[in-house]
Design goal:
Blueprint (H helix, E strand, L loop, with lengths): L8 H13 L7 H15 L8 E6 L2 E6 L1 H11 L2 E9 L3 E9 L5 E9 L5 H23 L7 H4 L6 E3 L24 H14 L3 H18 L2 H18 L19 H32 L3 H18 L5
Helix pairs in contact: 6-7, 6-8, 7-8, 7-9, 9-10
Length: 318
């Protein structure tokens, strides 16, 4: 029988206390693990990459977002910065970042640092820090995460970063648990095998199906970024080698992140080859991936547009 964490009435009260005031200090090590993972799952982050750290602040132990958190969030939600404004005042340097996400929602955020008496490299680093702060605060705001970013922590009086004992406080699951051993002896081996298999994909459809099979393993091994680089490279090679008929005749929604263009190209390729029935099967196969990428609505709209194009372009009597 596998061991399970049993939350007693007292434990439930402590978890409730965290939800109310954000204080993690009174949770047991096991409850901290549950809470940490729950926060990661709630915002779609990979806990293996440790997107959050702990901070002792005003008598409370709270979570704050580190660089890994904002980088993951930016990729997941397609957050991009389209304008930066900078202003140097007498003793401060301010940067305002303007951004939008994959759904077109826009927001702004301000990053300010004290530059009193600074010059040379020290001043340059402070100015870059202000820009980093603005961009990270923008990302957290757009993704609905109302917590501190690590660039803000060091400027808060009395705030102390807390390093918990990994073996006791934040034991991470084995990244290889549940992953087929034949393809994942190491992350390096996995990437080499994926690159070799992707090179054999003769068209967009084969590559899209292959990526769907591999993406879960890439996430488990913490090599999603490298996985996407290989995918983009092979996608580009296919685009360069195919004739004009391989390009979609139906416009891809402008909210679709470039990482997912392959799936939309493949959808139309299936439609042209096997008609709507085949396209519908392929749609169902990749719908979970589109949901994870917050592109389910775009995927549905694109499928409908391709179906309409197929019907209208079909020969009379077909």
């Amino acid at each position: 029988m596998t061991e399970e964490l049993v939350v007693s009435k007292t434990a439930a009260e402590e978890v409730e206390r965290v939800l109310i005031n954000g204080d993690v200090s009174r949770l047991s090590p096991e409850q901290k693990i549950v809470y940490y993972r729950a926060v990661c799952e709630r915002v779609g982050l990979d806990p293996l990459l440790k997107p959050f750290d702990f901070l002792q602040l005003s008598g409370k132990l709270v979570l704050y977002a580190n660089k890994n958190a904002t980088e993951q969030l930016r990729r997941i939600h397609g957050v991009s910065v389209y304008k930066i404004e900078r202003e140097r005042m007498e003793d401060a340097y301010a940067v305002t970042a303007y951004g939008r996400d994959a759904k077109g929602r826009e927001d702004t955020s301000l990053g300010v640092v004290n530059i009193t008496g600074m010059k040379g490299d020290v001043l340059a680093n402070a100015m870059m820090k202000a820009e980093t702060k603005a961009k990270r605060r923008l990302t957290l705001s757009m993704c609905g995460l109302g917590m501190l970013d690590e660039t803000e922590v060091e400027t808060i009086p009395g705030a102390v970063k807390v390093t918990l004992e990994p073996a006791k406080e934040l034991v991470q699951p084995d990244p290889f648990e549940g992953v087929p051993a034949t393809a994942t002896a190491t992350a390096e081996t996995f990437l080499k095998e994926f690159e070799a298999d992707s090179a054999k994909a003769a068209n967009y459809v084969e590559l899209a199906v292959l990526c769907r099979q591999y993406v879960g393993i890439a996430n488990k091994l913490g090599v999603y970024g490298s996985f996407m680089e290989i995918k983009r490279k092979r996608f580009g090679q296919l685009m360069a080698s195919q004739d004009d008929q391989s390009f979609p005749s139906v416009d891809i929604p402008n909210t679709v992140h470039g990482d997912y263009f392959l799936e939309f190209y493949a959808m139309e390729a299936v439609g042209r080859k096997s008609g709507y029935p085949g396209m519908k099967t392929f749609y169902a196969e990749l719908l979970p991936l589109m949901k994870e990428a917050n592109l389910a609505n775009e995927w549905k709209a694109y499928a409908a547009a391709v179906k309409k194009e197929l019907v209208e372009s079909a020969p009379a009597g077909a």
